[in-house]
Amino acid sequence: MLRKNKLKHSYWQLSPVQFLSLGFLSTILIGGFLLSLPFAASNHQPTNLIDALFTATSAVCVTGLVTLNTALHWSLAGKLIIMLLIEIGGLGFMSFTVFILFLSKRKVNLKMRIIMKEALNIDELSGGINLVIYILKFSIGVQLLGALLLMIDFIPKYGIGKGIFYSIFHAISAFCNAGFDLFGNSLESFQKNPYVLLVLSLLIVAGGLGFIVWRDLLTYKKNKRFSFHTKLTLIVTSLLLISGFVLFLLIEGNLGQMSSLNWFDRMMNTLFLAITPRTAGFNSISYNDLSYASILLTCFFMYIGGSSGSTAGGLKTSTFGVLVIHALSIFKGKEETQFLGRTINIKTVNRSFVLLFTTMSIITTAIVLLSITETLPENVGLNTLFSKFSLLLERWG
């Protein structure tokens, strides 16, 4: 009895952030352990634990980075585990926790509501349960629709069983902005298949916009208004997509693999090139074939990522928007940060700067550590890139 009370007391001592972090860590460890077992590999041999944990981490954190070929190394069971980890990571650990409690008809206590508030990035405790149910219904509906659209192309190409599984897997991977694929070379074999690229692009954007934005869009006819978050997200997302498309078209339009495509396929691949860096992780054009300008532009879009409360990662479009608006306000000599007739709370601005500083510090530290511990080929090394920038600066001077 004493030990039970002690464990219960420890649970209540965890902050919402600690609880969420522990939940994701537990999901990664369980997923990594399952992937390391023989049944998860196609050759029925145990997978190196480091590779299994890396794959589980990449799936839960929806990054798409892999050390093993997803299509060849994993068995059907392994791919199903990866697909489940992607879904949990994309929709959120708490969404599944609350859904399980809902199905079991257990009451969601105050502690869980506070944790859910932090996980969903909402301001109020009330309405969280309904939002979770909405998120799950919306996500399943969009992914199912995406899978059905992909089946139109995949079933004739791969057969019924494989075509259905491929459609479901890639619909989930695209909507959750995960970037895992079962083709072995991402989507490079679909350069001349605008239909598949378009469907996956729509799924990526749908997942990256965020559930709160979609709720505002779908209820606009009833409410006749958008929240400030939705307006800012839609504006920043649109500007990033349009600017990315134009810049990639100007930089890569007549180079490398793009030059061999007809104008329509070129436009579709350029659009996909602008959409997928927003943490989706797919590519239809080999990044080895892109210029340094395009790679830097891709890094910029990856850093910004998707929207708050979405399946995508990154700094977030709303945070980036607040930083830009604040900078413009300073340039104009204004004391307050205003946008669309509203003054942005100074706490929101300060939080955005803290996120910028924190993420840049982590990225810089990681780059330095990787530069020390890893040896890259000369053509992709940091030294070569630094030399080109030095030469460019000298010519400017």
TrEMBL record:
Protein name as it appears in the record: H(+)-transporting two-sector ATPase
Gene Ontology annotations of biological process type: metal ion transport
Signal peptide: none
Record keyword Metal-binding present: no
Transport listed as a keyword: yes
A GO molecular-function annotation: monoatomic cation transmembrane transporter activity
Membrane topology field: Multi-pass membrane protein
Taxonomic superkingdom: Bacteria
Annotated source species: Carnobacterium divergens DSM 20623
Pfam families: TrkH
Main location: membrane
Spans through the membrane: 20-40, 52-74, 80-104, 125-152, 164-183, 195-214, 234-251, 312-331, 352-372
Keywords: Cell membrane, Ion transport, Membrane, Transmembrane, Transmembrane helix, Transport
Subcellular location: Cell membrane
GO CC terms: plasma membrane
